[in-house]
Amino acid sequence: MSTIISTGLLAYGMSGKLFQGPFIEAHPGFKLYAVTERNEKKAEKDFPGIISYDSIDELIADENIDLVVVNTPNFLHYEHSKKALEAGKHILVEKPFAANTAEANEIFELADKLGKKVFVFQSRRWDSDFNSVKDIVESGKLGKLSEVHFRYDRYKAGIGVKSFKEELVAATGLQYDLGPHLLDQVISLFGKPDSFHKILGKNRAGTKVDDYFSIHLSYPNSVNVFVHASMLVVDALPSFVLHGEKGSFIKERADIQEEQLLKGIKPGEPGFGVEPRGKEGRLTLIDQNAEKTQELITADSATYLSLFEDVYQSIVNGTEFPVTREQVLTQLEILQA
Predict the structure, then answer these.
(1) Quick one: 18 and 148 in the same domain?
(2) What is the mean pLDDT of residues 131-147?
(3) Helix, coil or strand: residue 155
(4) Is 312 found in the same domain as 270?
(5) How far apart are CA 300 and CA 308, in angstroms?
(6) Phi–psi pair at 220, nearest 5 degrees
(7) pLDDT by residue (tens digit) across 213-246?
(8) Could you tell me the CA-to-CA distances from 157 to 89, 178, 202, 222, 333 in Å, in that order?
(9) Looking at the structure, do residues 68 and 216 belong to the same domain, yes or no?
(10) What is the pLDDT of residues 52-88, one digit of tens each?
(11) Whole domain around residue 63: which residue ranges?
């Protein structure tokens, strides 16, 4: 690749350390050039030679940087995206892209005016488990779908230390934390719903923000899609359940990339992104004679390098990034409602 995209990370928390840094370093079209670390300087150990700035403004002002990854707390995404664009950078913004559609539209319009690219880091669209679900839907094996459930459950009864997730600031609570993942997956498959109904809940002792949500999205032809997430699920249900006129497909959340990255396994190493045995999806079909057949579906390996390849191709060759502006705005319409 003749074009190298010099990239800066605005923060070096879990997102930058695990989900962006290793993939930027592994992709030959990018150079991981700089990071902002206001307190402890840790990035140098993981990425020798990286520049560590004390402030976001210093990093954004660096003329050598082409692409800025906006991975700061949710309520700062709008402010930092705007600053980076005005400094002449392309931006890759962590989810949620913004707190509402007004902020999102302003950022998109500013990028158009300045001739810069905007990307949203919807990494879960590149998960192995979701891609397995996508393959089943697109194959038509289930026939006309009637009921679809996507869920992302955890058990974390205590109040977290990250204030932007637990305090009453913009883009806070579980719906803005896990909602963007689930809604992006649904919207990428089914498009904009005809209507939706949302329920939020507060179940942990002392919580100020929602720690439960359930959203019912209605689509044409009586296709009903439900997304759910909770912080108080001890025994989690399957994350993907699809029912159609010809069968059902059930799949656990099984993408292994985060677990491998936490163990220090890097993108490109043998076995990276390969789901363990026992996590196969279960496809049950019924024929015209009411005879059932069942098959275990092994997901293809996945890597977030594919996301960065799509970013690269968009910047260098002008191809469309899979997460579109219209999809992002649809997601935010639901989240802000």
Answers:
(1) no
(2) 98
(3) strand
(4) no
(5) 18
(6) -55, 160
(7) 999 999 999 999 999 999 999 999 999 999 999 9
(8) 40, 16, 11, 36, 29
(9) no
(10) 999 999 999 999 999 999 999 999 999 999 999 999 9
(11) 5-122+306-319
Q: pLDDT digit string (tens) for 80-136?
A: 999 999 999 999 999 999 999 999 999 999 999 999 999 999 999 999 999 999 999
Locate tokens 């992006």: which residue?
184
pLDDT over threshold 80, residue 163:
no
Question: Are the C-beta atoms of residues 29 and 305 closer than 8 Å to each other?
Answer: no
CA distance 247 to 104: 39
pLDDT of residue 319: 98
The contacts of residue 9 (CB under 8 Å, 6+ apart) are 16, 20, 21, 24, 32, 34, 35, 36, 43, 69, 71
Same domain, 25 and 78: yes
Q: How many residues does the chain have?
A: 337
Q: Are 141 and 56 contained in the same domain?
A: no
Inside any domain, residue 332: no
Residues 108 and 167 occupy one common structural domain: no
Given a contact cutoff of 8 angstroms between Cβ atoms, the answer to whether 98 and 79 are in contact is no
Which tokens hold the place of 164? Answer: 């932007």
